[in-house]
Design brief:
The complex is a heterodimer of chains A (about 475) and B (about 425). By secondary structure, chain A is α+β, with helices and mostly antiparallel strands. Chain A has 16 helices and 19 strands. The radius of gyration of chain B is 22 Å and the shape is globular. With about 425 residues, chain B is an alpha+beta fold. The chains are: A alpha+beta (about 475), B alpha+beta (about 425).
């Protein structure tokens, strides 16, 4: 490893290679802090060319590679439980080209999501995917996990906005996949690489779509006596032919935690709230906001608060976006779920959550992208209390299986990483996983790109992939500061 | 491999004798680029289809899927053509709940049939490829084709949440999810969509559907000057307007659709609540007027007519940066004229995808030179050109697909080799002879 370190230092400069345990400590996990794995080396290249040389050198050495952006991932995708080299891409943060006539931009992988929108906003454009981590997460990381966000209900997730990706292959070749146009040629390699969590190639740059900002935006908060009523309202809004830009739900516990934490002005005693945002042509937004409010009222809304200006809208969103921070003040630790159910099954899921919480005695406030059927229950436990942790784990696992029984998915936007890897056998048949394994082998014959992630061990051709030990049991709290 | 009665019997045992054809007429009807298959089999279920693929793969026979057959001319001539699997008996709706905004149907269902199923709930499937309603969903996904609705709703790539397909060795496989948002495992639907039946035979798909907007307004604006047309197009995409469809038409194409046009123009549709449609149309009118455009009357069923267009014996698809599409059309149309061909064009003007139908007295040699010149021009603009339909003699002389980088092609070949090692599925038709 020392020889490899020296070789990599010759590529990226010795100031950009970390080998001491102290310097590597921060790289042992991402925001899924209970699963750890420290790399043997960390390198921070400055260009795609350097990344390619680093990967090539590691390939010659037989050393696995883990790509990393800001480390705000929630599935353990950036941890290195098998050791190897972490390639941090944050120094590659240049916006290479803005092409407004063709509504696209070319960026290096380390560019922060929000900074691209900040750059094009004065011209009336934005980069649509807006994960809650957008102030810190990189576009390369967003692409690797196919990040969503509250507004992906109308505008789609990251993959819908990637026109091409520059990748470094397992053996260190640098190439663009995808045409960079809105039309494909050959297999959709860019579509496969996006969301593959660094297992099919290291993304070093992206060509992404930009969209024009809407003419009008309206946001309202509706409060309900119960989660069931809020679920019914969600269905009723969609049934009226309205597809909001965002349709978010918080339950009673989440509301109180946020109010205690940041005081966003949410109705403290409500059983649930919906945060609904519409954008588009002004007349459409007015009409749809009216329809959506009517749907809420008919579903038993107790109060509807329509933001009158941008400041009030920001305040309403502050409540939703402060969830993680507010939870941090409770002194509780939590396990985060990212399940999806068909939208028609939201009421069933709500019932299951309530029953599960009562049965296991686990506090589980829930925030959801209700419009997508994507729920984030937080299974709370006492840090250091093994029994309480085990209860939370059991409850979390049970809810995940309920989601699958309802026809859903184990992860909507956070990714598989290490966290959900072994759950895929519940969602997919062996033949389905075998197909994915073959895809991985085509891109990465040695399985040295982010080894042990995404695909479960011990299935079909998965046995050919290098084995990386099972995820460790949680040992410490996921303390506040994650973005959900 | 010899054609034996035993093999015909084998197909019959799987799909029933009535659903196997080996006679010259039926096989000729299923020909691809003039090549005639030995059998046409019509499975009635995904399980039957899987058994057919497994049998073919075991016997070393190639399998070429077909749906409605409208787009079988896409791609290189097949390098082998043994069994054509016709998916049209598989038409079941597998799962559908209105509130899910997702429908899961078998691949042989036509777009028209799916739409009929959704219409009572006020929903629709926003796919409008050329020859639209008669095309099968499986065929549309396999070709990745989409028409003007892409401006608002995206392409099959964006609309497909899950696919059930049969791998080369005959295994029924599922990829993706039954929900609109999932990142569990690899995005397998992305690989199947647009792969022209070379990685798997799609037998079922879960696709997103949308509420049908209550009002629509469709206008055609004609322009004398190409620069004015492009300026109006550029202005339209550079404001907050959200058209449903934004389509460039050559003058002749506009006339085919019943519009009394002498010059090319833009066919633009807004769809929303009535007040928004009216406001958007008004804003578009001001843009058109400021660029010296003129509105012409549009028949109500114009989009249906567009779907029936582009029937010329030669059809090319140009993908260009959107701002360069009109210029690319201008250059290619002029070049076609110089070699004695007439051309008509339809372009998705926000996306930069242009299709041109070509007709006229020309030799394969001339056509070959024309395609080379047009391709070079388009490539210089940052785009690429695909020959979507041409007589076999022409296809022998030009690469119907455009050139891919060596690195990309290597990855694509690696995928094919891992997923279909015996080259059972649609051999030879795809990029690089995959």
């Amino acid at each position: 490893m020392r020889a490899l370190g020296r070789a990599l230092a010759r590529i990226v400069g010795k100031d950009h290679v970390f080998s001491s345990p102290e310097a590597r400590l921060v790289y042992e996990c991402d925001m899924l802090t209970h699963i750890k794995g420290m790399p043997e080396l960390v390198v921070l290249p400055a260009s795609a060319g350097e990344v390619a040389r680093v990967v090539k050198r590691c390939h010659e050495d037989g050393t696995p590679i883990v790509a990393r952006g800001s480390g705000s991932g929630l599935a353990g995708g950036a941890a290195a439980p098998g050791g190897g080299v972490v390639v941090g891409l944050n120094r590659m943060n240049r916006i290479l080209d803005i092409d407004l006539p063709n509504r696209c931009a070319t960026v290096e992988a380390g560019v922060i999501n929000q900074s691209l929108t900040d750059r094009v906003a004065p011209s009336g454009y934005l980069f649509a995917p807006d994960p809650s981590s957008q102030m810190v997460s990189t576009l390369g990381g967003n692409a690797a996990t196919n990040a969503g966000g509250p507004h992906c209900l109308k505008k789609g997730t990251t993959v819908n906005h990637v026109l091409a990706a520059q990748v470094v292959t397992e053996d260190g070749r640098l190439l663009w996949v995808g045409t960079g146009l809105r039309e494909g040629l050959g297999y959709d390699l860019a579509g496969a690489v996006v969301g593959s969590e660094g297992t099919l190639g290291l993304i070093t740059a992206l060509k992404v779509r930009l969209v024009h900002a809407a003419e009008s935006v309206k946001t309202f908060l509706a409060s309900f006596a119960s989660v069931q009523d809020a679920c019914a309202a969600t269905t009723a809004i969609l049934a009226r032919g309205v597809v909001p830009t965002a349709l978010e739900m918080m339950d009673a516990d989440a509301i109180r935690i946020v109010e205690d934490g940041v005081g966003a002005g949410y109705p403290r005693h409500a059983g649930a709230v919906l945060l609904v945002e519409m954008d588009g042509p002004a007349a459409e937004v007015d009409a749809h906001a009216g329809l959506a409010q009517e749907a809420c009222r008919r579903s038993g809304a107790q109060e509807i608060r329509l933001a009158q200006d941008a400041a009030e809208r920001a305040r309403l969103w502050k409540g939703r976006k402060s969830v993680a921070g507010a939870f941090g003040r409770l002194g509780l630790a939590w396990l985060l779920q990212d399940i999806v159910v068909p939208r028609s099954r939201l009421p069933d899921m709500a019932k299951a959550l309530g029953a599960c919480s009562a049965r296991h005695g686990v506090r589980m406030p829930t925030v959801s992208h209700a419009g997508d059927g994507n729920l984030h229950p937080l299974f709370c436990y006492q840090p250091g209390d093994e029994a309480s942790l085990q209860r939370a784990l059991r409850a979390s696992d049970e809810i995940l299986h309920v989601a699958l029984d309802l026809g859903g998915s184990v992860t909507g936007e956070h990714g598989v990483g290490l966290d959900k890897r072994d759950k895929l056998t519940r969602q997919f048949a062996p033949a389905d996983l075998e197909f994915m394994c073959r895809v991985r082998q085509a891109f990465s014959p040695r399985g040295h790109l982010n080894p042990g992630k995404v695909l479960p061990m011990g299935i079909g051709c998965g046995d050919l992939l290098p084995r990386v030990g099972p995820a460790e049991q949680p040992s410490s709290a996921l303390d506040g500061g994650a973005w959900i | 491999m010899d054609l034996t009665l035993d093999q015909i019997g084998a197909w019959g045992a799987i799909v029933g004798p009535a659903n196997v054809a080996a006679d010259p007429k039926a096989c000729a009807d299923a020909s691809v680029d003039g090549r005639i298959p030995r059998w046409v089999v019509r499975p009635g279920s995904p399980e039957e289809a899987a058994a057919c693929v497994r049998t073919a793969n075991d016997l070393g026979l190639s399998v070429t899927p077909r749906g409605s057959g409208t787009t079988l001319g896409l791609g290189n001539p097949p390098s082998r053509l043994d069994v054509v699997i016709d998916t049209r008996r598989m038409q079941k709706v597998i799962a559908y709940r209105r509130e899910d905004f997702l429908v899961r149907v078998e691949a042989g269902s036509t777009l028209g049939r799916i739409d009929k199923h959704l219409a009572p709930d006020g929903l629709f499937l926003p796919l409008d490829p050329y020859a639209g309603p008669t095309r099968s969903l499986g065929g549309v996904l396999a070709t990745g084709d989409q028409g003007p609705w892409r401006e608002r709703y995206g392409t099959p790539r964006d609309l497909t949440a899950g696919v059930r397909f049969i791998t080369a060795d005959g295994t029924l496989t599922w990829g993706g999810a039954n929900v609109v948002k999932s990142v569990a495992g690899y995005d397998v639907p992305k690989l199947l969509v647009g792969s022209l039946g070379t990685l798997g035979l799609i037998v079922e798909a879960a696709v997103r559907v949308y509420p049908r907007p209550p009002a629509r307004a469709c206008t055609f604006a004609a322009f004398h000057d190409r620069a004015d047309l492009e300026a109006a197009r550029a202005d339209l995409v550079d404001v907050a307007l959200e058209p449903d469809r934004l389509t460039f038409l050559s003058a002749g194409m506009a006339r085919q659709m019943g519009i009394d046009a002498r010059t090319p123009g833009l066919l633009v549709e807004f769809a929303s609540v009535p007040a928004a449609v009216e406001a958007s149309a008004g804003q578009w009118e001001r843009i058109v007027t400021s660029h010296h455009g003129r509105f012409l009357g549009v028949p109500v069923d114009c989009w249906r007519a567009l779907g029936e267009s582009l029937k010329e014996p030669i059809r090319i698809k140009v993908a260009a940066p959107p701002a360069a599409m009109v210029a690319a059309w201008d250059w290619i149309a002029t070049e076609a004229q110089q070699v004695g061909m007439s051309s008509e064009a339809v372009g998705e003007a926000g996306a930069g995808t242009l299709r041109m139908g070509l007709r006229g007295p020309t030799t394969p040699g001339t056509l070959q030179r024309f395609v080379r010149a047009a391709r070079a021009h388009v490539r210089a603009l940052g785009g690429f050109l695909v020959v979507e339909r041409a007589p076999p003699a022409v296809k022998e002389a030009v690469d119907v697909w455009d050139e891919l980088s060596a690195g990309q092609l290597q990855l694509m070949r690696a995928l094919k080799a891992r997923l279909d090692p015996k080259a059972t599925l649609s051999p030879g038709r795809f990029v690089g002879g995959i």
